[in-house]
Amino acid sequence: MAWTKYQLFLAGLMLVTGSINTLSAKWADNFVAQGCGGSKEHSFQHPFLQAVGMFLGELSCLAAFYLLRCRAARHLDTSMDPQQPFNPLLFLPPALCDMTGTSIMYVALNMTSASSFQMLRGAVIIFTGLFSVAFLGRRLALSQWLGILATIAGLVVVGLADLMSKHDDQHKLSEVITGDLLIIMAQIIVSIQMVLEEKFIYKHNVHPLRAVGTEGLFGFVILSLLLVPMYYIPAGSFSGSPRGTLEDALDAFCQVGRQPLIALALLGNISSIAFFNFAGISVTKELSATTRMVLDSLRTIVIWALSLALGWEAFHPLQILGFVILLMGTALYNGLHRPLLSRLSRGRPPTEEGERERLLGASRTPINDAS
Question: Where is this region: Disordered (predicted)?
Fold first, then answer.
């Protein structure tokens, strides 16, 4: 069946805003500017402040939800009303996972390339599959286990590509390795978030904008408060500020004042995450989880191509092999091979409902996928 104009718009919106989200975050990281008190020029490395901005973008979805709800009430439309009562505190545990995972991924993005960042996020399949078996009582099909194994192989190849690539002063080999490991570690937390959402939230049939916005509200408030103690906690080599603390929000604002383009990059990151989450959820609803997976893979290609074109990273052929293997793993896990096999055997292709069920947490993208 041919796509409608609205479906094409959603697919394009997801692809464009998802690419902007990662690229704008990396663009901000590449800026060098003076900080407060006439300090020397240094890189804009403020991952926790960037994570606060990401949650602000998600929070805007909550405002959009209530605006649409008021509009629907005037037209006696009940589609925006909750299907059944639920406690908003159900969103707190997933929001804490989202906050932790996103912060770790923004730290990692300072250390590695945008394309490796995007590819290594595919590790979420491994942990999501294992946790769904352990905590949701699901039984994975053989193709899903093969998908997990293929994903592990792809991660190894991408890691080797990072090890063998040329490294400049900005991304030393030790930092790249640390960044890659942090990204994989963050996927464990993201997988826990997806399992929690699957177990406690989706059964309430909460409107997608309300779900994203509520988690954004919790994340924004909690992480904003945590910026205060982070200003005093020493972080050593992990700190990007002259004071050597975990996060120096004042230094970040001083750098933004001296280099206004940083504000543009942050604004792109904040606005894109709101539209990306909404578009991703809507694509799953209007099309299928498999379509969303394909678009997310195309997003990786766009980010990779633009990073090469902008000179942010050097090309290495192993990355192509790693990406292809990761793509195969994702396709196997999400059942993308089934329509092809059914056509070859002249059977009936799987339904969209089956596609949604195979992708755990398909109606929610926790980061920016950090990101």
Answer: 346-371
